[in-house]
Automatic annotation (TrEMBL):
It comes from the Bacteria. This is Uncharacterized protein.
Amino acid sequence: MPVEIIGEVHPALFSELSAVHYRGVKVAVLNARGEVLVNAEKLTPPTITAQPTILPLTATLGDSITLTLGAATGLPVPVANWDFTLNGVSIKSRLDQGMMTMELADPGEYLLSVDWTNTQDSVRAETAVLTVAAPVIPVIDYAAVTLAYLDAASTFAGTQTDVTSISPIGQGKFVFSRTGSGNAIQHGETGFTFSGGYYLQTQVLSGLATTDGMFAVADLTINSYGAYSGQLLDGTGTTLKLRNSSGTLQAVGPVSGMGALSLGATPYGARIIISGQIDDVLDVLSGHDVSGGLVSVAHTGLTDPAPTRFITGRYLNGTLHRLAIVGRPEGQNWPITMPEVVADFRRGA
């Protein structure tokens, strides 16, 4: 209710009064004749003194960023109304609790928009922008860097229910032809399925660019154990082998007595990606196990790898989704590394 003053108020009452505030705002005091006894502050609209930022400006996926709203002056004191969006969708709730920070988990355009508002006006600050690029996924030219690469799209002869040969791409110009007896090899949307009967082998090979090493990466699903150790990749000559031996996946090198490298227990029914490599420069047998980890063991006494035939699918009950075989020519670098191929296979699994 209004304050009622009974009687006269001497002007001296206000002689030492420099300011009167009402709800945080300095207001004027007038006498009955409208004369100003105490001046009011002038109300002003917001003026932006610092623009909002998203730092660091060079942040990429996995980096942590910090938001600042900037600053503004005015009377009454301006209030910031803001939003933080990714590709037009608000993600304020994804900021670290009680903080103006977050880790960048997604590519796209991040915008920090701020409006400063008081009773006099509302002013929009410059929108802070951070564009985060998607990771560059290398495109592997398997025809150029492998001896052989096959997948569900590979050229094959026969029918969907009775495959007689597969012609993978690659520098080796391999042709995997059907051999053996029993259940047919079938082709489906995800690859080639073996049922413990017919399997595939290449023509006789010579002079392959493998004398400083070779590796193979296999993407497959093994449904059950076959009559003998499953030959995921096998062959003749000085070569690398990938096997399912009594429920244990193995990479096997050519040096007698050096043993096999375990790639883990066979997870029947699950799609897996494994690899094996023999390195004639380092005398090492290595590979990626079922968990994706890189494992290795010394393989001393290794001489120039020289495969004379490759075999795949023998004693296998399951589907071969993809297979890559890569050689390392004498005195040269790998045309592509085993981890690069494994990573590419995993992206497409």
